[in-house]
Structures are given as C-alpha cells and as structure tokens.
Amino acid sequence: MSRQHMGLRIFYFSIVTVVGVVIQLLVSSTGSVAASLISASVVSMIVQGLWRLSDPDSQSFTHQLVPAGGALAGIVIATLVRFLQYGIHPLNWAAIPVALFTSAAAIWLRPKAHSEVCFQHRVRLTTVFECPRCRQKFCGKSDCWNSRGVRCQRCQQNEVPVFDLRNDHWWTKRFGKRVTSGSCMKCLSTAANTQVHECGQCHWQMCRRCWDLDNGQCRKCGWMPEGLPEPLRVLIAPTRAVPRRSSRTVVAGQGRQQR
What we know:
The chain has 9 helices and 6 strands; from the N terminus they run H-H-H-H-E-E-E-E-H-H-E-E-H-H-H. By secondary structure, the protein is mostly helical. It folds into 3 domains: 3-108, no CATH class; 114-160; 168-258, no CATH class. The protein has a two-stranded antiparallel sheet. Strand 5 (196-198) and strand 6 (205-207) form a beta hairpin. The chain starts with a helix and ends with a helix. Residues 240-259 have low confidence and may be disordered.
C-alpha cells in the first residue's frame, strides 16, 4: 500500500468520524429514537457510497472497512457524548448495532468487481500479465507487452525502473557491497563513476541501472538474488538459486585448488 493511499484512508476515516458525530448529535438532540436509528443507518450507507466513488481499490474487503469503521466510530462517540451530557432513552443505544448491521450489509451486497481489462487495448483479459514496474494489467500482445524484457512496452520505452536505484541497503543486502574497481560489463561505466555490483555466482559486473534493465538477472549465467519483487519471480523463468558469495573468497579458493 502506498503512502498516498494510506494517507487518503486515514483522512477519510477522520472526516467520516467527525461528520458522523455531528450528524448523530444533531439528530439525537430531537429526542426521537426513530430519527436516531434512521440517522445511524443513513450515515453508514452514504459513507460507503462516497468511499466507492473516491477509492479505485474500494472493491477490496479490507478497504471497505475504512468507511464502516469511521461511521461506527462517529455514532458510538456521539451516543456516548449525548448519554454523558443529557442522558438518553435506552433504545437510542440501538443506533450502534444498526450502524454496524448497515455497514456489514453494504459490504456484503457490494457490486462484484468488473472483469479486468488490458490497460492498452481495453479488452477483457483471459491471461493476465501484470507489469512489475507500473503494475498495470496487459493482455500479452506484442504491442503492449514485452515478454523478453518482462515489462510493458510503455515501461520499456520510458526505461521505468523496477528497483530503487538509490536504496544502498537494498542493493547491499541482495548483491553485496559495490565494487570499487573495473566497470560495468554492459554499458562500460566505470565503478568510480557509478554503483557497480557483481553477480553472486559468476561475478559478472554491472551497474545498478543495467541490473535494473535486466530485471536483476545476470545476463551471463542467469543468476538472480533472493528477495526480488514477486511479479519478477513469477514471470521470469526460474534459475538455479545460488547464495551470494564474496568474490575474494571464491578467487582465493580457486587459487588454492590450482596450487
């Protein structure tokens, strides 16, 4: 989940809670039990509808708990405040289970998700390819999906990265420390001018950008480090997993064997 979506859900939850408190306090101030129960139900239904319009991922069950939780929190707070200030009719407490039941019914009866369509051709998908770089869904035709590069044609043209090229900890954990001598075997950039890492199996050297363009797979021996994004591991043909070893240790061992 991105920070933007997380922030949206927290903001929406807070707004729904405040609005629920205000509406329920105003309605309960009339002294009508029926109005209080109807208000709890209506607020719960309205926030669910607004959430589905505002969040493109609202079909997810966990996402729909955001408006349901906000509405329930607002009605509970309003009922408690009204009870502590003026006292309420015992039946007014029924607004809480009414809100809970309404939200549960709205989630249960939510419309089914639409069939996924190709982001490029807008046709229904039978075989789904999710681009590991932009996360869009594609049908796999050659003009929208680059099967060799394991990415969509747009990401291929724009050279969209799949890894965070600036995250030193991520690269060190999977590829080991950057090498300080030599150059990238693909683009020939020197190790002094860019971050170069070596393959954990054959010690082929490439810069981070070239490792990214090759999806983290060594173009010489096919080795891939552990901990790559799930879409890459699914789409790329499996290779023999070899844990990373220090290049100095390997060379020294070879030297002893030769002696």
